[in-house]
């Protein structure tokens, strides 16, 4: 019996040791833990763009405090969403991120941050979608409402034809003649773009313009490209005269395009612009929805049991409550017409 008792005591000590060596808690939100490991990992992700935006809006300018505030706020929003029966899927998150990349200028959206990790971008998108869903849920907005708004916005959702081409730009007829001579001698277009083009935005890419909306091109250059088939080079340079800047005389540049690909104009489908459509319907049905969501978050936060275990952040709970009370949540508004 003593032997079994000793084994039991050892097992108990091992279990206790295991508990002590488990994850340390940095904070809790209504019983849900935020571990120190999770906190320190989040601190490593905080970038200069986020801190600058936070400090500029009166928030924290320190990475640790900012990371802790973000973690607690996310937990609050997740719990509020669950309480209200709001669910956000991974597919919705991916679609929202695609929307913000296409329309970073749309009001209320967080555009791409080149420093942000994919995981951080998805977290931000999920929070934005939770806010959107909380605003929409009591309004009973359905597919018919979204389709009606989509039909109304169709003229603004036409994407113009696009072209992708290589280009060599020079500033004199003499330089243009030298390029044409080299082309006829067998030098590749890409090599000449790298070595002879004066267009700093494309020369390092072998003259590749990427896809460009046709209406955004100078008319003479657009007309020359329109005559080409893919992988065909224009027979000669096209001259384009640009207005002078700050009282300076006009300047003329010479462009030699080589067409790579074309994309016809199209009406963007509902799935690509759904955040825009939802935002417009929300504005139409309840212009006060940002304030309504703000009040909902404020009330839920006031009732939440938030504890921060790290002593240097003990006063953060009140700061979070104050910031959530003061800041209304915006919804994406209509972007400019595509291609302009």
What does this structure look like?
It contains 13 helices and 9 strands. It is an alpha+beta fold and 340 residues long. It folds into 2 domains: 23-153 and 268-326, Orthogonal Bundle (Triger factor/SurA peptide-binding fold); 161-264, Chitinase A, domain 3. The strands form 3 sheets. Strands 5-4-7-6 form a 4-stranded antiparallel beta sheet, sandwiched between helices. Strands 2-1-9 form a 3-stranded antiparallel beta sheet. A two-stranded antiparallel ribbon has the order 3-8. α2 (36-45) crosses α4 and α12 (289-303) packs antiparallel against α13 (316-326). The longest helix has 21 residues, at 63-83.
Number of E-state strands: 9
- What composes the largest sheet? 4 strands, antiparallel
**In CATH's first tier, which class of the largest domain applies?**
Mainly Alpha
What is the CATH topology classification name of the largest domain?
Answer: Triger factor/SurA peptide-binding fold
Structural class by sheet pairing and helices: alpha+beta
List keywords for this structure.
2 domains; disordered N terminus; alpha+beta; 340 residues; disordered C terminus
Provide the fold topology.
Layout: H1 2-20, E1 25-29, E2 32-35, H2 36-45, H3 48-56, H4 63-83, H5 90-102, H6 118-136, H7 143-153, E3 158-159, E4 162-170, H8 173-184, H9 189-196, E5 208-213, H10 219-226, E6 238-242, E7 251-263, E8 266-267, H11 270-285, H12 289-303, E9 306-308, H13 316-326
Antiparallel strand pairs: 1-2, 1-9, 3-8, 4-5, 4-7, 6-7
Helix pairs in contact: 2-4, 4-6, 5-6, 5-11, 6-12, 7-11, 12-13
